[in-house]
């Protein structure tokens, strides 16, 4: 849960902002009506993700509330009833995230949207590729102000190394003119890699050449900015591109996710497996587990199908807690598949701990316990289909020889072994 500080003397505006922000389950607001209350909140030691501050308060008529929030290094959004271009430019130069006027409901939606963007940025990695240290530091500073995780490279070759070492980088901002490999060659190299097809790429150049812009876009760049740029335009381009990419991902997830449990479906399992088995480096490290909630039919018969659905949702949530870096799939009914490339001892230890947690968890509002049975195939195979067959056969053995156990090989191995 993230804290947001709202400093506003109007009761109506405070209520509107508070309602819009707290509609998002990730946030809770601390509401202050004047500078004195805001000072107390900021000095209390509470960590705020952002501050939404009115420019003119009864005890702070000249923007002292903004200065206060910035002095505590809290990302600050100015929400004011007065639009003044000079004041706006001055505040943006001082470091506020945005200057938004109270014109309509859309203004308040902009505020809540920006706060949520900050939350998402905490886990969003951006790579800045620029040979000029001065320019690179400036861009990195702008990104850090918006809470991005920032990585740096001085040319295209260094950038490819960074992308290889940090595969969860979501955006690359690269200059055109660089030694060893320029931005134009970099975007072409990135788009040749299947795993980086969804990476957002924004090109930069000081030449202002429209032909260069079109070359970048045609080679796979999502956007292009001419230097020098005003930081407000920079932020707008970044946010729009990330939002577009997230929208595409949402559409894709609707096809790949099981609607009940919000883990992946069987169709995605085979799509992802194709990538794993194409790569010789990961093929021999793949571990497949088939996991089945025991006596699930009895839950449906006793408590009803709605309770059964809730059980599956809670069971899937536990799987996500214990296997956050692995591929989790609802294979069908109460049966789930986990595919991992982690070291066997590490993975099997997590599997045993998961089973212990399932035994002691009280599921649904009826507070009943369940167990699970698991079949594991950790041996190297040429295809996922082959591993699934072995794991499924071992699951069948686990189910029909007592349940509440893991079968690792063609003989039973109890979970207490902590493999």
UniProtKB/TrEMBL annotation:
The EC number(s) this enzyme carries: 2.7.7.65
Coiled-coil stretches: none
PANTHER family in UniProt: DIGUANYLATE CYCLASE DGCM-RELATED, REGULATORY COMPONENTS OF SENSORY TRANSDUCTION SYSTEM
InterPro entries xref list: CheY-like_superfamily (IPR011006), Diguanylate_Cyclase (IPR050469), GGDEF_dom (IPR000160), Nucleotide_cyclase (IPR029787), Rev_trsase/Diguanyl_cyclase (IPR043128), Sig_transdc_resp-reg_receiver (IPR001789)
Superkingdom per UniProt: Bacteria
Domain GGDEF: 284-411
Modified residue annotations for 4-aspartylphosphate: 54, 175
Annotated organism of origin: Alteromonas gracilis
Residue stretches making up the Response regulatory domain: 3-117, 125-242
Xref: Gene3D superfamilies: 3.30.70.270, 3.40.50.2300
Pfam families in the record: GGDEF, Response_reg
Keywords: Phosphoprotein
Catalytic activity: 2 GTP = 3',3'-c-di-GMP + 2 diphosphate
Protein's recorded name: diguanylate cyclase
